[in-house]
Amino acid sequence: MPLEIIERTFGPVQNNTYLLADTGQKRAVIIDPTFRPVMLQADLENHGLHLDAIWLTHAHFDHLGGVEALLAENPPPVQVGLHPADLPLWQSDAGAGLFGQPFSMNVEPDLLLTDGQELYVGEYPVKVLHTPGHSPGHVIFYIPSLSTAIVGDLIFRGGVGRTDLPGGDSYTLIKSIQEKILTLPDETVLLPGHGPSTTVELERDSNPYLNGFAF
User: Fold this and answer.
1) Counting beta carbons within 10 angstroms of the beta carbon of residue 81, is it exposed (0 to 12), middle (13 to 18) or buried (19 or more)?
2) Per residue in 117-131, is it b (16+ CB within 10 Å) or e — as a string?
């Protein structure tokens, strides 16, 4: 049975959260769970899936607000994966204070992600690519078997992630896109943290933030 991706959009700023499921082995991973992830928990239970891990593209509060609720609802161990360059953001208020939101985390990541690392959802490999720019520890998750990448807030359809938050850098972000997104096959589907999906080919051809940018 193929790897399945279930997309849910919810939370105060309409985050896209992704549940990856090896339907044969009944193993699952959730990427970027936002606040009150009751739909995700229902997906796990309705499909009889065991949650193995929560992977985070980065440590902004809207991408991890549901971590503690999912850990409380699922039997351990459930690993929490984050790139170490985003640990300072995690250990402060995950950027929530900039938006006037109180926020704190009472758990720590126990899976430190690295560039080129190979993770698994059941028997299916997923490659971690470090893509700083939106935040220092931003990563994307590339799934070769599905020709799909889950790209967080690095790139959107016709847009790119904001770089005006602490730790953001526009030059670094565009460099990450050039080196880690535009080098993927043209047909690769890009699933962002907000908004609709796109493809590598579409963004290479029409994204106004990328056209004419040279290093």
Assistant:
1) buried
2) bebebbebebbbbbb
What domains lie within the chain, and their CATH numbers? 3-206 (3.60.15.10)
Q: What is the pTM of this model?
A: 0.95
Q: Cα–Cα distance between 6 and 96 in angstroms, integer? A: 27
Task: List, for residues 50-82, the tens digit of each pLDDT value.
Answer: 999 999 999 998 889 999 999 999 999 999 999
Three-state DSSP class for 88? helix
- Phi then psi for residue 121, to 5 deg, are -110, 105
Single out the residue of 86, 28, 26 nearest to residue 60, CA to CA.
86
Q: How confident is the model over 154-198, as pLDDT tens digits?
A: 999 999 999 998 889 999 999 999 999 999 999 999 999 999 999
